[in-house]
Structure formats: structure tokens, C-alpha cells
Amino acid sequence: VTWRADRHTDADGIWSVVSARDPSRVGQHQVRIGGDTVSVLSFPGDDGWAEFITTQVDKGIPVLEKLVGQEWPGGLSRIREDVAPAVTGYAWFDHREHEIVLGEEFDAALLYHELTHAWLNGDHVHERWLSEGLTDLVAHRAVERTGQTSTPRKPPKRTSKVAFPLMEWQEGMKTRADDAEIYGYDASYTAVRELVGELDDATLAALLTAVYRGESAYDPPGTVDPDSLSRTGWRRFLDLVRDFLVFEDDG
Q: Is the pTM of this model over 0.85?
């Protein structure tokens, strides 16, 4: 099979991620998430990874549902082990293919991060930094609530040569250097943690429910902003945070 391209994919030329695999040889397991049966596809013979994923999903999904304040929304068909994350530098949730792609590491925080994108993604959260920061916060809290340990991201240096305003952080942005992506994730997590990291689980869940539903910060609780198009942007998020911080202070 030959693929051809005659247009640049970005300012630096043409690039593409290619994953060559034989589906007939993968290890196949299944795990239930809500009403969905999700396939766990591992490297041939890598039963340890498959067992890790199914165990983490079983104990992690109820915790994630509690932290987000919403039942599992569906939209996932498989969790696949692949070497591509070792090349690209990141795992991902592909909503078009309904799959999560992970490397071979046993990383509960990363798995929970990608699972949380079932709720907190571009369909519900406008800016990338906000989606990634909230997802990371939930993932590390879920690791803690399931009796495990993780290493949260450290605050980045704003004087770094790769530093940029978080509002400019987009998929496919001109600078795709690994250190720039790391800065984006580190800065997003730091910003969100400073804003809402001290909220208790119940208050955080109420806030994330409002974010997920596109609720207004200026109408009675549960009112969906008619101009939101189901997506919460940073301005309305900050307004919601203010209201929930006041709510928590008032008990």
C-alpha cells in the first residue's frame, strides 16, 4: 500500500505517525465499563500489561465517576498497547476511532488521564490547557483515592525558552518540540491545581459537572448557558470557580 501527499502538514514540511501492526496476533482481553464492553489489545504474550489495564479500569472507573460527578459517558471501544507513544512522546484518546492508545508502561495516572478525556475533551471544554489540566488533576487524585502513588507534574519555569501563553497551546501548533509539549502539560496542570486543587471531592465533582454540562455561572444551578454550545471556555470556568470557592467557604 502506498500513500502519497502533496501538501505540507505544517510549516516544517510533511510528517505523519505510522503504526504497522498485525491485528491477528495481538492479545485480546475484555473489560466492562458501564454498559460497554471494551477490548484490551496487548502485544503478543504481554498478559501482564493487559491484566494491569483491566484491573486499573475495574477499580478506577467508579472513582473517576465520583470525581467527575457523572456516570461513564461511553464512546470507548478499545484500549490498545502500541509503541507509537514512545515515538510521539504522548498517549492519546482518539474519539474518532473510539480508542485509547498507550505505551507498555504500567502507569495508572496516564491511564486515568486518558479515561477522564471521555468526559473532559474538546466537545465539552474549549481550551486545550483547561481540558488537559483538569484531566491531569482528576487522574492524580484518582490514583491517590485508589491507594496508589503517582508523581504529579512540577511547575515549569516561565523563563524557559519554550514557554508560551497557555491560550496559544493547540493541537498541531507550529512548535511541536517535545519540551514545548511538556511545558504545556506542566503549566496547565499547575494552573488548574492552583485554581481548584484544594477543593474537596464533592465540590470538585459539582464544579466538573457544571463544566461538563456547559452550565452558566450566573443562573440557578443546573442552568445550561444557551451560548455555550455545550463547551465551557476559560472565562466561564473562572466564574464557576469563583462561585464554587465561595460555596465551599460558606460550608
A: yes
